Amino acid sequence: MKMKSFTICALALAISACGNGENTNNPGEISLSGIALEGQTITATVTDNDGVIASTLRFQWRSGNSLIDGANGPTLELTADQVGDPVSVVASYDDEAGFTEVVLSRQTTDVERLIVNIIGTLSISGEAIVGSLLSASLSDENGIGESINYQWVADGQAIEGAADATFEITEAQIGTAISLMVTYTDNDGFDETLSSDSTAPVIAAPSNSQATISIAESTLLVAGTQVVSTLVDGNGSSNATDYVWMADDVVIAGANTSTYTPTSDDRGKVLSVSISFTDDEGFSETASATASGVVHTVITDSLADLVAASATLVDGDVIGINTGNYANTDTDAIANSMTFTANNLLIQPVLGSTAVISGPMCFELNGDGITVDGLRFADVNTLNGSNCASSGGSAITMRGDGVTFSNNVIDSEQVGRDQSAQFSWIALRGVGSTITRNSFTDSTGQKALTSGGVISVYSSATAGVNQDHTISYNLFKDFPDNGTAGDRNGSAYMIQLGRSTGADSQGVLNTSVQFNLFKNVTLDRRYIKVQSGGNTIDSNTFLDGSGMIALEDGNNNVVSNNIIINSLSDNSDDGGISYGPFGHTISNNYIAGLRTTSGDRAGLYANSDVITNSGNATSTIALVTVANNSIFNSREALEFGSRECSASAQFIVDFDNNLIANDEEGDNLGLASNGRSREAIQDDCDLDASSDFDNNHIYSRDITNSGSSFFALFVGSAGNIEGAQGDADIAQASNGLWQGQNADADIGADVSALTFLTEADVGPGSEN
User: Fold this and answer.
1) What's the half-sphere exposure (Cβ side, CA atoms, 13 Å) at 214?
2) How far apart are the C-alpha atoms of 522 and 481, rounded to whole Å?
3) Judging by beta carbons within 10 Å of its beta carbon (0-12, 13-18, 19+), is residue 734 exposed, middle or buried?
4) Fewer CB within 10 Å, N- or C-terminus of the chain?
5) Could you give the residue ranges of the DSSP H alpha helices within 264-314?
6) Which pLDDT does position 223 carry in this prediction?
7) CA angle 582, 587, 591 (to 5 degrees)
8) If we measure between CA atoms, which residue out of 292, 312, 221 comes closest to residue 263?
9) Rounded CA gap, 84 and 138, in Å?
10) Average pLDDT over residues 676-697
11) pTM for the complete prediction?
């Protein structure tokens, strides 16, 4: 073989038939055949007039100006890598004339991409639920043109108007399977028609089943015992976590599961639990529950349990009284005496308890801040030999400071009780205690036969001892007489403020008796017996009974804004307010319908008898203010003195703006025409000459029964009017009470300042 070397010129000659000077070379040439299209094959054919030695042929294909790696054969299958560029080939070989040839082909046209239709894909997303939004998802490797036609289909039937990429399911599609048809022309010009898979049959939209949560055993919560809450949600609650427990509305740190075990810190508090979550059907839920009762330290089921608990309690404990037997039948069973000495105790029934503590008892509250709330007592008597039996005896003794006795019911004392003792249902000592919203009744009728009372408050001559109590919003009801008209024991009372006629009666008890209702309470002289000083008896209502507010000992008490009405036809022992001459204030009281025929009773009775009591004997007679009181149709309207009429015992009275109207029309007042044949005033004793009578209007048959100093003081003072019976100018106010008008305006009680109490206003639960 003759080897030829080429220069650039020689290469050019080789391509253009150059020789070496000895022989003449006939240059070869290369031709390409095929289509410049992706996937097609281009074939190179070499021809040479000198002949081609086939075994020496070598090829190198190019794409544009780049070598195609591995493309060294006479053919080239076009791929996507060559699309957009022309291809060419260089061939080298030896011809049969002994020349080595290198031949370059011409370039093809740019290789074109092979266009193949790839079918698009179509799917839909969303739930097959009424109200849910279904959305189309369309893809196509050939590209998607701008014009796409959508048609939603229900069970193969086109849904009218459903021609968008989204579709909101309506109730019309319930039970059908929804699919989507799409037609379009892709970017490579292929027409496409696609159908999606169908949904499950459409169901109605779920309705929200409001989540609820409850606290199990909420009435018997005990510290140390687990409390379980139960969450119910018809939509599913698998996402419900992060519970929030609270005690008295304060979040308990770390209590975030469905159960909680209360601690001693929770005693007396109300537990609650709440939770917020999204239910299994997507509804946002908030649920909460509050326990019906507080957390207790101990729950008793019998009298023996309660007695045992009383001996082991510590400050802040809470005792729950559950249904059981709490009756004591043994008067001398000292073992059943209960003394509560810890402070800040709460004693109350568990919700739903029907427990009644009955029989002889000593329920002694010695600790400070104790609360007894919502219990029931019956047939009470003192327990012989107990601490409660001392000082006259009581069933319940409140000795600590700041003790609260509230929302309790006491019905009757025990039949056969020793009638000689100064027994009281409740004895109140200490400082700053409260008896409120209780009910006191006497279905057996024993109390009207005996001495003693319902509430007896001890006073002391020592400052800071036994004082500052409140007795409010209690109901005293149905204390009948003994069945013999006019034979009522004179030593019985509902409330006694102080228990001494001696030195202790001169102490400042400073106790408030307010907003209590006394209804059908039949006593001789005393609803409220006062034997101490500085007390306020205000805004109480007394209906259809007998008795008085009796200021017998002590000084500087205030009796104001009380309503005393007796509409009974036969009650000879009724009365209003009696008072001694020791600085008291009696104002704006409303008294009507008194029928008393007994001595020492009247609407307003200045009682000179009490002056000789041992404690009062050490006091100086001081001005008594009697102002702005109204007395209607009362047989004994005013009385001054009865027995002690000495000059040294004369009352000093500032008697102003009082209205006495006897023998008004009974039907109009709703009262009998009491006082028709009586004078308005029984003035058996002279008054001190410094007494003052201004602007009093008295309408009666006669003004007085004598020519004592009262008459002279009355007629000689400014603004007093003496009128005939039935002539008072009065009108009925919106609360049913009567008051003066025109000439009698602003005389007597301002009834707009009075509270006419009903049973709904007082007694257990009335604060709600």
Assistant:
1) 6
2) 6
3) exposed
4) C
5) 303-310
6) 94
7) 110
8) 221
9) 29
10) 81
11) 0.74
